[in-house]
Amino acid sequence: MKEKQWQELFKMLTEDKVKYSDVSIRQLCERLGIHHTTFYYHFEDKEMLLKNGVELLLKDYFKIDRDERFTKPFSSSDIFYQGSDLLTLIEGQRYDDACSNLISKWSKDLMTRDAEVFIKENDFESREGLTARQLVETIFTISDWNETANKTVEELDTIYSDYTKMIIK
């Protein structure tokens, strides 16, 4: 049932172009033909349903070699996003700041935990999670900057490497 709930929300957000902010639990339950108590049995609210879905969509990203993800993050992301349902979701909700912000927040959280493992595996110096957050924020900052810079993924990986060479040695 959890998967059906996610699939229906995903369809609403991507195919039907309903803004996440406009989706109600009642509306979702009506489309699924379930009582709202069934929804709440599985999820606390629609935010937790979206979070669960985003984590599912990111599974393939975390299958990419960790060293690749943190030494060539833009090439890795480019491979992941080709045909990705996460990209479909992001594009479908680009005009809904609430959805976009949640996806970014959860992606950063997962990537930061992953970066902490990367740092430990490579014996890089770390300051109580700060280094992991710095790596991830650098990826997101460069990505945001690139919306107007229009660099290739290879150029972005080089820029990232230049900015993080004091951390990743």
Automatic annotation (TrEMBL):
Domain named HTH tetR-type: residues: 1-61
Gene3D superfamilies found in the cross-reference section: Tetracycline Repressor, domain 2
Residue ranges: DNA binding: 24-43
Record-linked InterPro entries: Homeodomain-like_sf, HTH_TetR
Pfam families: TetR_N
Recorded superkingdom: Bacteria
Record carries keyword DNA-binding: yes
Name the UniProt record assigns to this protein: TetR/AcrR family transcriptional regulator
Family matches, as PROSITE patterns: HTH_TETR_2 (PS50977)
Coiled coil ranges: none
GO molecular-function terms, A-Z: DNA binding
Keyword field: DNA-binding
Keyword Transmembrane set for record: no
